[in-house]
Design a protein that fits this description.
The protein is an alpha/beta fold. The chain has one domain: Class I glutamine amidotransferase (GATase) domain (Rossmann fold, 3-Layer(aba) Sandwich), CATH 3.40.50.880. The protein has seven helices and nine strands; from the N terminus they run βαββαβαβαββββααα. It has a nine-stranded mixed beta sheet, sandwiched between helices. Helix 2 crosses helix 3. The longest helix has 20 residues.
């Protein structure tokens, strides 16, 4: 009988929810729960979580003075990794993963907002986690920070604006600088709540109309996300 997994995610902004991750969990009949850190909610005990997903947010991992809950969040992530839980970090979540694994996180040379292609590295082409991802595809980005690849991790994908887009630690921890989970609804919500960020100029910042035109790429991204979550969930089901 298939095990009912308990998937938990950390949410940092009201407008950055789970997107297609919720659809995947419902399809698989998995339990999906959330800690809304911006509401000062307390995460569940780690033993109650089978898989941890860390969503994006406008803050930086270094903004602990303004967002003191970042301190406890980082500790929780460290403990989840140490406990061999499958962990996925998205955008800010990937930066938090990189940070707790000892890598530098800082401002990127370019903001990257909109639909831009990422390409697999040689490591990405060999990764079992990315078996359903084509060598190159357009994905949704919304970030101004970047991470170095932590020591002992494998770089899996890159883009023109930001060379470090995706990394893997061991076989069950993965950080995505971009948003495979983005749906037309979630992108529209981000534009509504944080669209002022698109007003600045830059070679990798699209207009709102260009972002909306790129929604055609969401289905393929969501399909890759579902496959990636399937691969990570095997590490729970098999134990």
């Amino acid at each position: 009988m298939k095990k009912q997994l308990r998937i938990h995610y950390f949410q940092h902004e009201p407008y950055e929810g789970p997107g297609c991750i919720q659809d995947w969990a419902e399809k698989e009949n998995y339990l999906l729960s959330c800690t809304r850190l911006y509401n000062a909610e307390t995460p569940p005990a780690l033993e109650e979580v089978n898989m941890l997903i860390i969503m994006g947010g406008s803050m930086g991992i270094y903004d602990e003075a303004e967002y003191p809950w970042l301190v406890n969040e980082k500790q929780y992530i460290k403990e989840a990794i140490a406990a061999d839980k499958p962990v996925m970090g998205i955008c800010l979540g990937a930066q938090l993963l990189a940070g707790v694994l000892g890598a530098r996180v800082n401002r990127a040379k370019f903001k990257e907002i909109g639909w831009f292609p990422i390409s697999k590295t040689e490591g990405g082409k060999a990764s079992a986690l990315l078996q359903s991802m084509p060598d190159s595809l357009n994905v949704f980005h919304w970030h101004g920070d970047q991470f170095d690849i932590p020591h002992g991790c494998l770089s899996l994908a890159e883009s023109d604006a930001c060379p470090n887009q995706l990394f893997q630690f061991g076989d069950r921890v993965i950080g995505l600088q971009f948003h495979f989970e983005a749906t037309p609804g979630s992108v529209s919500r981000m534009l509504e709540d944080a669209g002022e960020e698109l007003e600045g100029s830059g070679p990798y910042v699209q207009t709102k109309s260009a972002v909306m035109s790129g929604l055609q790429y969401a289905d393929q991204s969501n399909s890759v996300m579902s496959s990636l979550l399937d691969q990570l969930s095997k590490f729970v089901i098999s134990v």
